[in-house]
Amino acid sequence: MRRPASLPLTREVARRKYLIGVIEENLMGALSTPRLETAAANTDSATVGHLSSTPPGNRTLAVVARIMGWLFFVGGLVGAGLGIAGLHVEITVAGLILACTAGLILLKLRTDRDVPETT
Fold first, then answer.
1. Which residue pairs, CB below 8 angstroms and at least 24 apart, start in 64-67?
2. Is the dihedral of CA 61, 66, 68, 69 positive or negative?
3. If DSSP codes are grouped into helix, strand and coil, which group holds residue 109?
4. Per-residue pLDDT tens over the stretch 52-95
5. How far apart are CA 21 and CA 36, in angstroms?
6. For residue 78, what are the CA distances in angstroms to 48, 82, 83, 95, 103?
7. Are 85 and 104 in contact, with CB atoms under 8 Å apart?
8. For residue range 45-61, what is the model confidence (pLDDT) as tens digits?
């Protein structure tokens, strides 16, 4: 049943519409990334000391993780290239899966490095 256009929305109907919109946004991942206003407020309130201070153990671990990520990424691309050259579908697919997974991990490491730590 459709509501006639002349009738105003009641609070209950408006609230239901709002909740449906919130649920749809959550399902689509709209809240998985920070809002721009929140990120801007965090960078304004952060001090320079917090931005550059990372414990030495975490820095070494991050460098090793980045090197391993790049090795797996390049290895996956080489494996995919060899699979294409040899006309082996399984090797090509395995190489592409490895390269894509390593690429996503490298992107995650980059975003973790760029986000300032707030305490």
1. 65/109, 66/106, 66/109
2. positive
3. helix
4. 455 667 889 889 999 999 999 999 999 999 999 999 999 999 99
5. 20
6. 41, 6, 8, 7, 14
7. no
8. 554 444 445 566 788 98
